[in-house]
From TrEMBL:
This is SWIM zinc finger family protein. Residues 51-84 form the SWIM-type domain. Residues 109-122 have a biased composition (Basic and acidic residues). Residues 109-137 are annotated as: Disordered. It comes from Pseudoduganella dura. Keywords: Metal-binding, Zinc, Zinc-finger.
C-alpha cells in the first residue's frame, strides 16, 4: 500500500493534491469497498448524483464519473488517501457492476493490444504497404537533405568558434531548428533549441562545455545518418530514433519481456511548449537492469501511467530496439508497494567502466544512469561528492538541491542516484534511512 506522500506525488498539479487531501475524510464518502483488484467509493459533489470513483490497485489506475479532465482527479486522490489513512473503512466485498464493467473493459483492452492486427485481403495489405513505403522514402529523403544542411551549418559554426554564438541571438538557432521540423526531424529541432538555451544561461559557468558536447553529438549524428546502411542494425535503430523516427508501441510490446521486481528510483517532469514530458528511471532488483520510461501529457492532463518514485512493482518491461537498450514500456504491472531495500551499487571507477562500455556500442548516450553508494556531499564547495574510495565526483551545474542533499546526509555517507553526462553527475534522488527522496518532486526549487 502506498503512503500518503507517494499518493500525492501522483497528482497532476499542486491544486489537485490540495483538493484531494481535503476529500480524504470519511464524511465525504459512501459505498466504500475493495477487493483484491480495486477499491471504490462514491463522493457527493455539487450535482444530484454522487461521483463514482474507482482505482485499479495493480498499477494504480483511476476512473471517476466527475467532469474533470485532470488525471487522476481530486476524487481519485481523495479516495486513495482515505484508504491509506483509514483502511478499516473499506470492507472486503464483491465489486459493484460499475466497477466490474470498468475492470473488465481494462482487461479486454489489454488483451486486444496483444492480439495480432486483423487480417486484410492480400491486395489491400500490399497497397497499404506500398503507400507506407512511399511516405517513408519521401520522409527519409527530406531528412537526409535537412541533415546535410545542418552538417554544413555546424561546420561553419565550428570555424567561427563558440565565442560568437551569444552575439547572434536566439533567431540564429531558431531558423535551423525550424528547418529540422520542416523536414520531419523534430527531435533534432528540439535539441537545437536546447543548445540555444545553453548559450543564454548567464548563471551557468559550464555552458561552453555543455554546448560543445551537444554540438559534437549532433555532428556525429549527421555523420552516422549519412552512412546508416553501414551501421550495425541495433545502432541504426538508435540513429533513426534520435533523428525523429518513432517505433510503434505495438512493435515494442511484441518484443521479449524482462520480468523483475522493478524499483522506481527517480522521476522528473519537463515542459516543452504545450506538452509535458515525464522521465522515470527504474532498476530491476534481480537483474540490475536499468530502464527509462518516457511519458507525455498535453495541457493539464495527467500522465496515463501513474508511477511514483520510491515504489516498486512486479512486472515485465519491453525495451525499444537499440545498441544499448534503455528506453522501455511496461508490459505487465502488479503489486505496487513502497521500496523496502535497494541493492548495493558499484564503486565509482566500476560505474565509469560501465559507462565506457555502453558508450563504446552506443556513442550517442547523453544521460547514463548511475548510482553511487556511500558518497558524502562536500559541505564547502557544494558542487562535488566524495566517493567511498576518495574520488571527487563533480555535480552538474543545473543541480539546485545541494543544501537539501547536505541536510539529508548530515555529513554522513548516503546513496545517490543520478544521470551521468561523461563529466558531471546530476543527482535525481537519494536513498537515506530506508527511504528514497526524489529531488524532482519532494524538493522543488
Amino acid at each position: 500500500m502506498l503512503k500518503a506522500d507517494q499518493i500525492l506525488a501522483l497528482a497532476p498539479d499542486a491544486a489537485s493534491a490540495k483538493a484531494g487531501s481535503q476529500l480524504a475524510a470519511p464524511a465525504k464518502w459512501g459505498g466504500l469497498g475493495l477487493n483484491g483488484n480495486a477499491l471504490w467509493g462514491e463522493c457527493q459533489g455539487s450535482g444530484k448524483l454522487p461521483y463514482r470513483t474507482q482505482i485499479d490497485l495493480g498499477e494504480p489506475a483511476f476512473k471517476c464519473s466527475c467532469p474533470s479532465r485532470k488525471f487522476p482527479c481530486k476524487h481519485g486522490l481523495g479516495l486513495y488517501l482515505l484508504r491509506a489513512a483509514e483502511p478499516s473503512l473499506f470492507n472486503e466485498s464483491e465489486a459493484p457492476q460499475w466497477v466490474s464493467d470498468w475492470l473488465d473493459g481494462r482487461k479486454a483492452r489489454r488483451e486486444k493490444k496483444e492480439e495480432p492486427a486483423s487480417e486484410r485481403s492480400p491486395e489491400a495489405a500490399a497497397a497499404a504497404a506500398a503507400q507506407a513505403r512511399k511516405r517513408e522514402d519521401k520522409r527519409a529523403q527530406n531528412i537526409a537533405n535537412g541533415l546535410a544542411d545542418l552538417q554544413t551549418w555546424l561546420e561553419d559554426l565550428a570555424r567561427d568558434g563558440l565565442a560568437t554564438v551569444r552575439e547572434r541571438g536566439p533567431a540564429f538557432w531558431e531558423t535551423m531548428a525550424a528547418r529540422m521540423v520542416d523536414v520531419q526531424a523534430g527531435a533534432i529541432g528540439n535539441r537545437l533549441r536546447r543548445a540555444s538555451g545553453l548559450c543564454f544561461q548567464a548563471a551557468n559557468p559550464d555552458w561552453e562545455r555543455q554546448l560543445a558536447a551537444e554540438l559534437t553529438s549532433l555532428y556525429m549524428l549527421c555523420e552516422a545518418h549519412g552512412r546508416l546502411d553501414a551501421l550495425p542494425a541495433p545502432l541504426q535503430a538508435d540513429v533513426r530514433t534520435l533523428v525523429g523516427w518513432t517505433v510503434p508501441q505495438e512493435t515494442v510490446l511484441a518484443g521479449p519481456p524482462l520480468a523483475d521486481r522493478w524499483q522506481v528510483l527517480a522521476q522528473y517532469t519537463a515542459d516543452e511548449a504545450r506538452v509535458r514530458s515525464r522521465t522515470t528511471w527504474l532498476r530491476g532488483a534481480g537483474s540490475g537492469r536499468w530502464a527509462m520510461l518516457l511519458h507525455y501529457a498535453a495541457g493539464e492532463q495527467g500522465f496515463d501511467v501513474p508511477l511514483v518514485a520510491g515504489t516498486e512493482f512486479d512486472g515485465a518491461l519491453c525495451f525499444y530496439p537499440g545498441a544499448w537498450p534503455l528506453r522501455a514500456l511496461i508490459g505487465e504491472q502488479s503489486g505496487t508497494r513502497p521500496i523496502g531495500s535497494i541493492a548495493s551499487s558499484p564503486e565509482f571507477d566500476t560505474a565509469l567502466d560501465g559507462y565506457a562500455a555502453a558508450l563504446a556500442v552506443q556513442p550517442f548516450i547523453d544521460r547514463y544512469p548511475m548510482m553511487l553508494d556511500a558518497v558524502v556531499p562536500d559541505s564547502a564547495s557544494r558542487n562535488t561528492l566524495r566517493s567511498a574510495d576518495g574520488r571527487l565526483v563533480a555535480l552538474h551545474s543545473s543541480f539546485r538541491h545541494a543544501l537539501h542533499l547536505l541536510a539529508l546526509s548530515g555529513g554522513h555517507p548516503v546513496t545517490v542516484f543520478g544521470e551521468w553526462d561523461g563529466a558531471c553527475l546530476l543527482p535525481l534522488s537519494v536513498w537515506h534511512g530506508g527511504r528514497l527522496f526524489n529531488f524532482g518532486t519532494e524538493f522543488r526549487s
